[in-house]
Structure formats: C-alpha cells, structure tokens
C-alpha cells in the first residue's frame, strides 16, 4: 500500500470512487482544477497494486487546513485504509505548518464521524441546511495538529 500525491492520470479512478461515495459527486474538471489551479490544494491517493482505492483532499491556507473530501472505494472499506489516509493527510498538514484541521461531515454519517473522533477530532458546531441535495445539517469537526 502506498500513499502519494494525486496526479492527472489518477482522475478516472478517483471519479469512479467519488461517484460511489457521495450523493453529489464532484466532476473530473473540479479535481483537475484543484490539481492544476488551486495553490492551496493538496490531494493524496492511496494505492494498492497500482489501483487507486481512495483519496483525500486538503486546503492549507497559512496555519489553517480543511479537508475537502475523503473516500475509500466501497470494496476496501473497513480495512483501516481510511484511517491510514487521514493520518497521512494530517501529517502533510503538519509538514506544511498548519496548526488546526477542520472538516464538515453529514450529521447522519456516523462512520466518518467515528473515524474523525478516533484521530482526535472534536465537534465544533452545526452548519444548518449545509447539504443542497437533502438540506441535511453538517457537523463541523476540528483537531489541533500539534496535540494529536
Ligand atoms: C469514511 C471512510 C473514508 C472510512 O474509511 P474506511 O477505510 O472504511 O475506515 P477504516 O477501516 O480506516 O476505519 C477507521 C475507523 O472508522 C470508523 N469506522 C469504519 N467503518 C465503520 C463502520 N462500518 N461502522 C462504524 N465505524 C466505522 C471506526 O472508528 C474505525 O476505527 P476502528 O477500526 O478502530 O473501529 C469510508 O467509509 C468512506 O469512503 N465513506 C464514504 C465517503 C464518506 O463518507 N467520506 C467522508 C465524508 S465527510
């Protein structure tokens, strides 16, 4: 298993995972824009035998980092790959001198919330009607990187 920076050639596999993971999936162009035109973006993939099985995006602006998306392909879930990927993303944030990392997660997404809590994230508030597809609230979660 390796975790490395995402490149353009990964995008077809990334899009496939994205479509199986989110109700309003990002399009390939959005990932392309992130890789080539967003100076704050860092995108990692996790790969097994040359197959991309997951990815995680972060934006790092000064000492503040945010997760944009994280997903593992359904067949590989529950085998600690998500945890390994999130730990790698947190390490990237530390290398880039970010001090805190935050994210939004659907209030119904207990699996992801459990992963985040395991890695030290705390709840930080609710964003009402955050998700446009069903009006679901988002739970804001954050972690101090020098304490985790
Ligand atoms: C969230 C996600 C990335 C987790 O990846 P994963 O590889 O399946 O998770 P891991 O196997 O590394 O599990 C790590 C922790 O997550 C939690 N978790 C994982 N699967 C779980 C399940 N079925 N039920 C409850 N908690 C679960 C547990 O806390 C687990 O720690 P443990 O093994 O000590 O119990 C994955 O489920 C996914 O891609 N979901 C769809 C996309 C998504 O919801 N992304 C998050 C958007 S905010």
UniProtKB/TrEMBL annotation:
InterPro entries: AcTrfase_RimI/Ard1, Acyl_CoA_acyltransferase, GNAT_dom. Its EC number is 2.3.1.266. One of its GO terms (molecular function) is protein-N-terminal-alanine acetyltransferase activity. Residues 1-146 form the N-acetyltransferase domain. It catalyses: N-terminal L-alanyl-[ribosomal protein bS18] + acetyl-CoA = N-terminal N(alpha)-acetyl-L-alanyl-[ribosomal protein bS18] + CoA + H(+). The keyword Cytoplasm applies. It is found in: Cytoplasm. CDD domains: NAT_SF. Keywords: Acyltransferase, Cytoplasm, Ribonucleoprotein, Ribosomal protein, Transferase. GO terms for cellular component: ribosome. It is an enzyme of class 2 (transferase). Pfam families: Acetyltransf_1. Belongs to the acetyltransferase family. RimI subfamily. Acetylates the N-terminal alanine of ribosomal protein bS18. NCBIfam families: rimI (TIGR01575). This is [Ribosomal protein bS18]-alanine N-acetyltransferase. It comes from Bacillus changyiensis.
């Amino acid at each position: 298993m390796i975790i490395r920076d995402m490149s353009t050639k990964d995008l077809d596999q990334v899009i496939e995972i994205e479509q199986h993971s989110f109700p309003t999936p990002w399009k390939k162009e959005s990932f392309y824009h992130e890789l080539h035109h967003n100076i704050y973006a860092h995108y990692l993939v996790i790969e097994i035998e040359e197959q991309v099985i997951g990815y995680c995006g972060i934006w790092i602006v000064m000492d503040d980092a945010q997760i944009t998306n994280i997903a593992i392909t359904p067949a590989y879930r529950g085998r600690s790959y998500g945890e390994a990927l999130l730990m790698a993303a947190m390490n990237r944030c530390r290398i880039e001198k970010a001090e805190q990392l935050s994210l939004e997660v659907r209030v119904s997404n207990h699996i992801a919330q459990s992963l985040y809590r395991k890695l030290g994230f705390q709840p930080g508030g609710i964003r009402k009607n955050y998700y446009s597809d069903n009006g679901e609230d988002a739970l804001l979660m954050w972690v101090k990187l020098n304490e985790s």
